[in-house]
Design goal:
- The complex is a heterodimer of chains A (235) and B (101).
- Chain A has 235 residues and is mainly α.
- Chain A contains twelve helices and no strands.
- Chain A folds into two domains: 3-169, no CATH class; 185-235.
- Helices cover 75% and strands 0% of the residues of chain A.
- Chain B has one domain (2-100).
- Chain B has five helices and two strands, in the order αααββαα.
- Classes of the chains: A mainly alpha (235), B mainly alpha (101).
């Protein structure tokens, strides 16, 4: 192994480790999805394909129910689009760093760009070097494998497993995201932005507003932006 | 038919993820938009996290018996003091488990 490929492997390994709490935290949801799909009459292959090529938790759970309930194709596709629309924001945020990269990296990172990978993309030099690309590949790739493994377990074990989503593993996602956000709050605009995100996300969630996540994030971004402008700040 | 639907769904999620990573897309990010986007990370992560802590069964849950609140509080304090992901998750989970059972 050459020196650089050993370095790349090490970077990818660090990505795997950093993603580990999130990979484990989605275990109940992966299992829930796999067993739900089989119970709703999908074949093993179809259930695994959902995780293998769609690779989006919320989209998968919602569309599996819709398809099983014989919703029209348009309804299914539109719901998926609405739930996935938050990814536009991730792509836009990472555009500067990723758009100049070779096609295979863009395609790979585009495919792997989940909430969880975006959460680990906050570093100022994220995706900038080959090492950081391998780091993201390790993080995103291991999350992909974990999600597909949990789905597979759900498909095989199906209804014989208890509902693990009541176990509180989603707290691990919350704790990980807290660990990533709190150190980033270094200025008043960011603090205002985070506060607005918190309040509006809770409200939208209580209203069961489908686009709540995207709207809360956009409101929060504008709040931070305006606070910075009023301070005569960094723009 | 189901396979086709799954394939179309895959196209939609991939499209939403990939679109803005494409360099040939004729969009230039000006300084104002860049400044706005600089808030996207904390904004999105907070918008995902806080409802996990406060909303259960579509109800606002701010009771003292809600372990998510205690765990969340411990995690915020640990993140602020230690800036370490591992301390934050460990202390958060510890309080979450202690107050939950």
């Amino acid at each position: 192994m050459s020196v650089s490929s050993r370095g790349f492997a090490k970077a990818a390994g660090k990505g795997v480790v950093d993603m580990l709490p999130l990979s484990l935290a989605v275990l109940p949801w992966g299992i829930l999805f796999g067993s739900l799909a089989v119970q709703r009459g999908f074949s093993w292959l179809e259930a695994q394909l959902f995780s293998g090529i769609i690779f989006g938790g919320a989209v998968q759970i919602v569309t599996v129910e819709l398809i099983a309930d014989n919703a029209s194709l348009l309804t299914v596709l539109f719901s998926a689009f609405v739930i996935s629309s938050r990814h536009f924001l991730y792509g836009l945020s990472l555009r500067e760093r990723l758009s100049p990269k070779p096609l295979r990296w863009r395609l790979g990172m585009g495919f792997l760009l989940t909430d969880e990978l975006f959460a680990l993309s906050g570093h100022r030099r994220a995706y900038q070097s080959k090492f950081r690309l391998y780091y993201a590949l390790g993080a995103g790739g291991s999350f992909y494998l974990a999600w597909n493994l949990w789905t597979f377990i759900g498909i095989v074990a199906g209804a014989s497993l208890p509902d693990l989503t009541e176990l509180g593993l989603d707290f691990a996602i919350a704790a990980t995201f807290i660990a990533l956000v709190v150190p980033e709050i270094k200025s008043l605009p960011t603090l205002v932005s985070v506060m607005v995100a918190a309040c509006s996300a809770v409200l939208f969630s209580l209203w069961q507003f489908e686009l709540g996540l995207v709207c809360a994030a956009l409101l929060a971004m504008f709040a931070g932006y305006l606070t910075g402008k009023m301070q005569g700040g960094a723009a | 038919m189901t396979l086709l639907t799954i394939f179309l769904l895959a196209c939609i999620t991939f499209f939403t993820r990939y679109l803005f990573l494409e360099g040939r897309l004729p969009i230039r990010l000006g300084p104002n938009l860049k400044y706005l986007l600089s808030f996207s990370g904390p904004a999105v992560l907070t918008a995902i996290t806080v409802p996990i802590l406060f909303v259960h069964d579509q109800q606002l849950d701010i009771a003292m018996t809600n372990p998510y609140l205690w765990g969340g509080l411990a995690a915020v304090a640990a993140a602020y003091k230690t800036r370490s992901v591992y301390w934050t998750i460990s202390l958060g989970l510890l309080l979450f488990v202690l107050t939950g059972y």
